[in-house]
Write a structure and sequence with these properties.
Elements lengths: L1 E4 H14 L5 E9 L2 E10 L15 H13 L3 E10 L7 H5 L7 E8 L2 E11 L7 E5 L1 E4 L1
Parallel strand pairs: 1-3, 1-8, 4-5
Antiparallel strand pairs: 2-3, 2-4, 5-6, 6-7
The structure holds zinc ion (ZN).
Amino acid sequence: MLKISNKDYVALRQHGEETYPYECCGVLLGRMDGEHKTVTSLARCGNTRTDSPQNRYNIDPKELIRIQREGRERAEDIVGFYHSHPDHPPQWSTTDLAEAHWIGCSYVITAVAKGKAEITNSFALAGHDENDKRLEDERIEVSG
Ligand SMILES: [Zn+2]
């Protein structure tokens, strides 16, 4: 389960509306307690994919390292990632699975139709390693 405040939930959905018709992407920071993840802040990222920004996203590894370091200074860990699917259902693609490497983390996808955020889904990356990893449906609990 992924717990997120209403403020962060609204913000990650808005990010997808702002970057429409391109995908947005960002990092979820917080605490991981077994399968319970609590988001305490978001870090927006620039989408470094210029070849196909409508249906691909990529976070610059240097940016990711910086986000991870700054999070640790606030006692926050990376608990997941989010991106948007412009004019596409909020289901993970085979590319999304192939490019997901953080076992235990959440992968949140928001469908943005004609510039409006619609359904937001979360998937947890389960498995032990790259060979048996899989994305499983996960409940999002929005609070306050
Ligand atoms: Zn995707």
